[in-house]
Amino acid sequence: MIIPEPILAKIGTASHGNVSRREVEECFFNNAGRYATDTRPEHRSHGGSPTYWFVAETNHRRLLKIMFVRDGQDIHLKSAYPAAVHVAELFNRKTK
Asked: What ranges do the domains of the chain cover?
């Protein structure tokens, strides 16, 4: 997984819930393989790839929303922060 330094710094701030790289990795590991796609044009990558997102728990049961873009076999993190209840519910509806 590729996490650019500016993204890592951003998610580690209080306004983004002090999310760590380890927590992001735990969420990828703990995810059940379900991903939602954000198809809004303003959320596409510079190459036009869609943004994928999911909600999963860390190993300490902290619920996070993870957003990323795929580039071949690489995963580029776009953002991560604590997931609100309504976001988790939306994710569950979109990925049933």
From this structure: 5-94
